[in-house]
Amino acid sequence: MATLTTASKMMPPAMQRLIKGGDRSMIMMSDDIAMMKQVTDTHAPDGREVDVKPLLLLVEDILNRATLTASTGPTMGSPYAENMEDKGYQASFNAVLDVLSYTIERISCELSAKALTGGEAHATTLSICNMLAPFSWDAKLVLTLAAFAFNYGEFWLLAQIYTTNQLAKSMAILKQLPMIMEHSGALKSRFDALNGLIQAMLKVTRCVVDLKDLPSAYISSEAPALSAAMAHVPTAVYWTIRSAVACASQITSLTSYGIEYALSNCFDFSTRTQL
Predict the structure, then answer these.
(1) The pLDDT of residue 254 is above 70
(2) Separation between Cα atoms, residue 201 and residue 237, nearest integer Å
(3) What are phi and psi of 216, to 5 degrees?
(4) Measured in whole angstroms, how far is the alpha carbon of residue 156 from the centre of its chain?
(5) Which of 15, 66, 143, 200 has the highest CB neighbour count under 10 A?
(6) Which residue from 146, 134, 103, 151 is spatially nearest to 240, judged by alpha carbons?
(7) Angle formed at CA 56 by CA 51 and CA 57, multiple of 5 degrees
(8) pTM (global) more than 0.85
């Protein structure tokens, strides 16, 4: 969320009381503009073209499977499962990952490290944007979601199989998963909030990817409606990456600080991640 500028914080209380709603909105708008300038300043595309659609398909499959409800347990169904066995898709995955796996791993480490050290969400988001500077806006989104899915998918994979696989059970114990699953009912609201935000992140990412793929034969890039939509893409990218930072922090807090801490601290996405 936008914060008041440093200058406004230094104003005497009497002067601050004189700032009416409209003026306050102007200050917040100014902060938003400054924040987005920081984001766009990190954007330095080098002309590389990355087909992120196969990777997005894989990410959607992971995140749609990595879901838990207190009553039914992990969700097993996925509308993308039938494509996973297609050799053409598998070849596409391999080709993309040969080029992008290092970048995905770097972002994944950044998400985990900043969640553990309590890094400020905006600074972490900008750090990820800097890592992704050479990529197009849609690629930034898909790569960030892939990095998040890497950790989030591992969490739920262990949750789904640790009762029947000894290796998974030992790893799950290290991550305190049995205790977390035992209290999944008490944590339902947090899981529901996570899933809701993740689904929103997927929808935004799919929209940005689809926007870029609109055929020029049917719509000009200079069409007013398309130009207006594309103007909002950097903002959508920023908040989606920042949402991934928030979600990663929530999962890390569960596995790192323990269930007692989680149950006794009903913090939301804004407290640990400083949104």
Answers:
(1) yes
(2) 9
(3) -65, -20
(4) 16
(5) 143
(6) 146
(7) 110
(8) no
